[in-house]
Each structure stands twice: as C-alpha cells, then as structure tokens.
Transmembrane 9 superfamily member (Urochloa decumbens), 672 residues
Amino acid sequence: MASPCTPTVISAFLLILLLIHSGHSPAAAFYLPGSYPQRYRPGDTLAAKVNSLTSPSSKLPYPYYSLPFCAPPYGVRHAAESLGELLLGDRIETSPYRFSMLNNTTPLFLCRTDPLSPDAAGLIKSRIDDAYQVNLLLDTLPVMRYVKNPIAPDVLLRSIGFPVGVRADDGEYYVYNHLRLAVLVNKQNVTTRVESLMATADGAELIGLNNGGGKEGGGYTVVGFEVVPCSVDHDAASVKDKNMYDEIASKAAAGCDPSVVGMRVQGDRPLVFSYEVAFVESGVEWPSRWDAYLEMGGARVHWFSILNSIVVVAFLAAIVLVILLRTVRRDLAQYEELGGGEAGGAQADELLAGWKVVAGDVFREPSHPVLLCVIAGDGVRILGMGVVTIVFAALGFMSPACRGALVTGMLCFYLVLGVAAGFTAVGVWKTMRQGDAAGWKVVAWLASFAFPGVGFAVFTVLNCVLWYNGSTGAVPFLLFLVILLLWFFVSVPLTLAGGLVASRVRHVGFPVKTNKIARQVPVAQCSPWVFVAVAGTLPFGTLFIELFFIMSSLWLGRVYYVFGFLLVVLALLVTVCAEVSVVLTYMGLCVEDWRWWWRAFLASGSVALYILGYAVYYLVFDLHSLAGPVSAALYVGYSLLMALAVMLATGAIGLGASFCFVHYLFSTVKLD
C-alpha cells in the first residue's frame, strides 16, 4: 500500500492558488494536499511493516529478511515506494506483526526458526557487532525506543528502531526476540472538528465514519509507536506445536527487562520469536504526531551560527561599500575634474593607474572559456535546485513524514532546471564573444553532460559496489535505467532548449572596447591564488555549523528538519560569496591584473576545499566507528561529489557578482 503522504510541487502550487482564490488566511488549519489521517474503528486490523536493517557504523543497509526473522503467513510482499525511498535504500515489506485497534494482547507466539546453521549464526553475530537496527513502521511512523541515559539516569534518550541483539559481557551474543510494543492512539472528536472540516473532503469522511461507527464515531488515529525489545529464553520444545499468534506462557516475557538477556545465538539452536502490544490513548493530535521524531536540540547553536554569519556579512558589506562609495566614486570624480584624462602631467598619470588602465583588457575572453561557461551553467542549476528544495522543505511540503520526498523533489528540480543550466552556459558564452553565438551547441551539449556525467559515473561505481555486497542501498536495475532515461530524455533536451533560447536573445554588451593586443600583467609580489584559497574561509565560516548537522543526518541517521535555519544560512552564504568575489576582483584590478574571470569563480568556489577538509575531520573524529572499506568508499565518493556541487554553485555566485561589479564599474566612466 502506497504511503498516504505524497506531497508534490503541483500540490504546493494548487495550495497557493487555492489560498489566493478563496482569500482565506493561510494560518487557518488545513491538511497539505495528499496528506491525510488514516482513521481506525475499534477492532480494525493494523499491520506493521519492516524497513531495511541500518547501522550507524556501516553504511550498507540490508533487507530485513536477510536474517532468519519470522515472515507473515501469507508471504512477504513489497510495499509501493517512491523514487526517493528507493534511492535512499529503503525496502519496505510486510511483517507478521498484526494488531487489532484497542485490543491489548498477552505475549503472542510468532514463529520458531529452524536450527541455525553456522553461517546463519555468524551472520547474526556480525550484524550485532556492526550495531544494525531493526526498523518497524506502523501507519508510516517508525518505531521509537526510549533508553536511560547512562550519565543522567533521569533522562531518557530517544532512538529510532532497536538493535538486532546485544553482545554480553561474557562474550556471548543474544538476539532480541520478544517485542513489547505500545501503540499511542488519539480519539477523534467529530462534534468539535466537523464544523471546521465541513468544506473539505476530510469533513465528509468524518461524517461518513460517524454514521457507521456508533458511539465511536470519530475513530482513532495512530500518533505514536514505541518498543521495548527483550531477549527471552523461550523453551523451543514447548512451542513446537504452536501456531502463529497463539498465546504463549512465559514468565520471562511477562517480565520483559531489556537489561536481562536469554535467547543466545549459537549454531544448531532454533530461535523463538514473540511479541505483545498495548494501546495507550494520547493527547497528541494527528498533525503533531511527528513532533517527537523531528524535535532537534541545539536551537541556540543554530542562532549562534546565523549571528556569526551576519557579522561576517556585515564586515564584507562594509568593505564593498567602502570600495564603491569612497574609492571608486572618488577616482571617478577626480577623473571627471581632469576632463576625462585629457590633462597632462604626473597627476593624470597617477589618476590613470590601477583598475582604470586595464579598461581595454578587462572584458577579454578568459582562458578555457568553454569550460568556464559549462561549469557556470551547472552551478546555476545546482544553486537553483538547492534554493527551491529548501524553500519547499521549509514550507512543509517535503517533511520527513513523507519518506523520500526530499530526494524525489531534488531530482525533479534538478531535471527541470536543465533549462537554467543551458541558458546560463550559452548566455555567458555569447557575452564573452560579444554577441557571437557560434559554437553554442557545443557549450549546451557539454553543459548537459559535464556535472551530470561526473555524478552519474560516481553513482554507478558506488552502486556496483552496493550490488556486489547485496545491500538494499543499491538502486534496482530498472530504476537505474529510469534515471538514465530521465537524464537523456528530460534533462538533456531541456538544457539544449535553454541554450537555444540564450542564443536567440540579446546578449549583455560591454561598456568598453577590448584592445586587439593583450596588456602585460605586472609581476605580483604575492600570488593571487593565495588570496583565492584564503577567501574560502569566509563562506565556510557561514555554513560549517549547519554542515555538522547535515553530515550527522546523512551519516549518523539523525533527523534534520530545521529548514528555516538552513534557508537563512543559504541566503547569508550567497551574500558572503558575492561579497568575497567582488572584493578579490577589485583587488586584482587595482594591481592591473585583468584576468578576473576564473579568479572570481574560484574565490567563492574555494569553500569546497574547506568542506573536503571538514569531511576528513568528521570521518576521523565523528565517524571513527565506520566499519569496512565499502562504507569508507561510500563516504569518500559522496563527499567528493558534494564538494564539487558546492564549488560549482558558489563559484557561479561569485562569477555573476563579479561580472555585475566590473560591468557597473567600467560603465560609469568613458575611457579612450
């Protein structure tokens, strides 16, 4: 059964149009299109599902049934999954855990496995050593486990899922074979909500449920799913003749204690699994049921990061204002007083020094112009994808409650923004050549295959590694073909279409003419690339705190949902990149170095070097428990790809800002 939460970009646009058309306040209560509660009557059947086994130390998710767990009596079935879920390695399948709404149960027997072979016992022990977690789902909610903080016993720590088992102090391995499950439910009060929902489909649904539900008219919604896993030493002989869901008498199960272990993993011994369930009425309403999962600490840290970035932005903005309002305007005023540089003498020679003497070369075509145009186009596409995705996520349309929605949205936005990549690449190419669009097709084709080709090559290599290791993180072959077809038949045509439009529109003209012979650049006392490398520290200082939380979400399985903070940080990052690039461009022009194109791109793009350095630091100090060369290869591969994407996006910001600055600077004065 597909997830009821299917937010899309179309849904967002429909919601905005609806608010505009109706004139209602957007603050009024509403459900996002495609997101609705599933209501149950007492006695209705609830079926839990299972997801892939995951581990914080190993980045290889494995199928749940790769271990000898109990299968449902009607066989294992795969649930419908979105594109994003498949790309994230989720494999949702049916499970034998079934409940009846509001019916608490005593311990129920699930199954008795065959005696474990040495290989099966070794596999379970290996999964326990790698800290693999079992992930159950009920009504799309992941199961949550509460454990006492060993440092502060009064504080409970939350974690999603529960371990496969534990290795005791005696060196023996024990599996968690008994689950004490708690389902938190909220009773829907129709009489208080039907008036506000009368105009919606949900209101009609509630009225229909009330007519057929008697005194339980509103039904119940699932608002929480908790587990206490136990290792219980069931007598395998006594349950040999029992059927699934029969009651099982066991003192150990009745007194489930996670600190006591009993079901040891050893060869030639079967495992016995059981569970019990209790329903608990909760005051948490359905729209707030994800709060416990999405709650993130460290709000002060995020605010500190933003305030720190604002200080950096203000400092750089002051420098830019000094350059524009004092230095440049003063030079221009003095130039006009001397009659456009016609006066002679030492004063005129001094006035025409610095950035003004490179007017005939400042718009000269840079080295490797095709490459610069292509990566600028790819950078605009990546930046646009990030901005649009974060905006939609901040508005709630890509909540983690909708599994895979964030990845699906990113992929869709990236494909559609191929138009922006082609338009930017060909537009920069045509501007460099002063209106000559010859060769635009080559630029557009390269923009279609440059970064997408590198990304797809890295993805293919890592996917083959995952295939070889039998991990659910490997993308299925059919989905692999779908991604390839989307690239060739959606992304490439849109990129070419953007290039075609750019080749037909009017280009940005240069305010000064370019000399036929290039001016010799004076020898600099310090290499300008030193300043370029150092310039990346300022953009990195803007985002490094949010980078820690994002890395923890990607590699440690922690939930990241502070997209409002991330949107503010992104705006500050764009501002810092633009200011850094403008300052370095002006410094280069002042020493009569007109080769600013690449320097403007790399000044802000050099933040990628510091991101790579931070990735190494994070691997050494935060992911020191990372297990195996395969997990390390995944980390290195995706870190390199992330750094490359950041370099292209920030570089495009710097190049655009510097071009606007140089164009404005030389359009304010007429030089012969």
Remarks:
- The chain is about 50% helix and 10% strand.
- The longest helix spans residues 628-667.
- The CA atoms of residues 70 and 329 lie 78 Å apart.
